[in-house]
């Protein structure tokens, strides 16, 4: 598929010139050019230049951007997109003063979505997730990581991972699968938690690795869920099977999860609402990416992750939605950027870098996607705005005009 995009008002490339991830002041450097044009051939970006100077080859589809803004597609590196049911009742309970933990202890929370997801057919799970992915793409996201974690038994976790794999095959979005069997303890293992941990290590991980059903393994390392010992056991076992660890860390309590992730070279540690100086020091001495999920703080009225201190310490930071039915029912990365700027003291430039190139790095994909550079996959989004800063500024609306995924202009 060949495509020429001309008359681009602002081409925000987020170029990294071969660097895996951007840190510190480099996160503010978007390498933007005005009055630009872009050539895409066979799904790859092949030329970037000034409008008028870069000539389109003959017989090529042309998009006249009419002065609009172009950004790399967003990379949402943390979502729980495959699930059944919904939890608006818990939302209402929180409005009346109940906390996330109180609702979970009363049988709601993750287990409530687990029950609905166990009952759902693969066909239904596929259909629900497919619609959500279409919506995500309409709001500028072109790559989505999806976790299992609402099955919590070998059969149902595999069912979810198979749905993710089918979506990966069929959907325009680039999809990356993560096994999150260690999301909560299922009711049947309530009195023997170790038996569930062993089932993950001895049965689920080898099967998932053998069938290539996931790239990453995630663990909800939290008090009342998976403690440091269980988390470490699962990390070591995952690595033995060639699966790469990620963690849900420091969401509700800081007790060493971030430090453990850094020690074991997790590709990312995500959440970090409670991360303190010990976590920051551990990350500083590692290659692990700090992924913040500001939508979760908004939705649960929890503190925000210390993004400013993390960036200022030179740690690579990514932003993701954490889209899920319990704690974050929004998949707009545009909205996450607004929260980053208003609640976490990030600049619009840092928010864009964290939502594109650094998100790609959190999935190990930043050599292929996450920026607009020659040789990279052509995932580019055109916005109906005159300045990129307008996107997080005018929030709660979708500014996307057109989405080009892998060189293909999507028809919504
Ligand atoms: O990332 N924290 C754990 N997991 C999800 C919430 C899942 C749920 O409540 O359904 C999260 O916030
Ligand atoms: Fe999550």
Structural key phrases:
binds N-(iminomethyl)-L-glutamic acid; Urease, subunit C, domain 1; alpha/beta; binds fe (iii) ion; 412 residues; eight-stranded mixed β-sheet; TIM Barrel; 2 domains; 16 strands; 35% helix
Walkthrough of the structure:
With 412 residues, this protein is an alpha/beta fold. The chain has 2 domains: 109 residues, Urease, subunit C, domain 1; 287 residues, Metal-dependent hydrolases (TIM Barrel, Alpha-Beta Barrel), CATH 3.20.20.140. It contains 15 helices and 16 strands. α7 links the parallel β9 and β10. Bound molecules: N-(iminomethyl)-L-glutamic acid and fe (iii) ion.
Task: Please outline what is shown here.
By secondary structure, the chain is an alpha/beta fold. It folds into two domains: 109 residues, Urease, subunit C, domain 1 (Roll), CATH 2.30.40.10; 287 residues, Metal-dependent hydrolases (TIM Barrel, Alpha-Beta Barrel).
Number of helices: 15
CATH topology of the largest domain: TIM Barrel
Compute the number of strand runs: 16
The chain-level mean pLDDT equals 97
Rg, Cα atoms, Å: 21 Å
The largest sheet, given as strand count, sense and whether it forms a barrel, is:
8 strands, mixed
In whole angstroms, the N-to-C terminal distance is 18 Å
Fourth-level CATH superfamily of the largest domain = Metal-dependent hydrolases
What are the bound molecules?
N-(iminomethyl)-L-glutamic acid, fe (iii) ion
Structural classification: alpha/beta
**What does the overall shape look like?**
globular
Domain count = 2
Task: Give the fraction of residues assigned to helices.
Answer: 25-40%
Low-confidence stretches: none
Which CATH class of the largest domain? Alpha Beta
What proportion strand? 15-25%
CATH architecture annotation of the largest domain? Alpha-Beta Barrel
């Amino acid at each position: 598929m060949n495509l020429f995009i001309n008359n681009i008002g602002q081409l925000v490339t987020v170029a990294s010139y071969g660097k895996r991830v951007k840190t510190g002041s480099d996160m503010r450097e978007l390498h933007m050019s005005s009055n630009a044009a872009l050539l895409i051939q066979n799904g790859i970006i092949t030329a970037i230049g000034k409008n008028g100077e870069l000539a389109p080859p003959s017989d090529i589809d042309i998009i006249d951007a009419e002065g609009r803004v172009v950004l790399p597609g967003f990379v949402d590196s943390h979502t729980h997109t495959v699930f059944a049911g919904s939890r608006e009742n818990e939302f209402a309970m929180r409005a009346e003063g109940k906390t996330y933990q109180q609702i979970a202890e009363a049988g709601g929370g993750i287990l409530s979505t687990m029950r609905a997801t166990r009952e759902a057919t693969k066909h239904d799970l596929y259909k629900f997730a497919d619609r959500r992915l279409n919506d995500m793409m309409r709001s500028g996201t072109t790559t989505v990581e999806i976790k299992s974690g609402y099955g919590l038994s070998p059969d149902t976790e595999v069912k979810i991972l198979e749905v993710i794999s089918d979506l990966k095959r069929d959907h325009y979005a680039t999809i990356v699968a993560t096994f999150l069997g260690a999301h909560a303890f299922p009711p049947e293992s309530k009195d023997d938690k170790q038996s569930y941990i062993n089932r993950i290590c001895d049965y689920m991980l080898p099967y998932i690795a053998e069938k290539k059903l996931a790239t990453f393994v995630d663990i909800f390392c939290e008090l009342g869920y998976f403690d440091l010992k269980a988390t470490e056991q699962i990390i070591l076992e995952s690595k033995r099977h060639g699966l790469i660890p990620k963690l849900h860390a420091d969401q509700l309590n800081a007790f060493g999860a971030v430090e453990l992730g850094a020690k074991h070279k997790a590709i990312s540690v995500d959440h970090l609402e409670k991360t303190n100086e010990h976590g920051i020091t551990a990350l500083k001495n590692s290659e692990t990416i700090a992924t913040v999920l500001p939508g979760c703080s908004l939705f649960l009225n929890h503190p925000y992750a210390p993004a400013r201190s993390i960036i200022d310490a030179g740690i690579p930071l990514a932003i993701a939605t954490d889209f899920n039915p319990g704690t974050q029912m929004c998949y707009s990365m545009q909205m996450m950027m607004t929260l980053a700027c208003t609640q976490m003291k990030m600049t619009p430039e840092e928010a864009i870098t964290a939502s594109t190139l650094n998100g790609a790095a959190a999935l190990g994909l930043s050599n292929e996607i996450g920026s607009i550079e020659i040789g990279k996959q052509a995932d580019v989004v055109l916005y109906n705005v005159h300045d990129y800063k307008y996107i997080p500024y005018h929030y709660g609306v979708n500014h996307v005009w057109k989405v080009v995924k892998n060189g293909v202009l999507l028809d919504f």
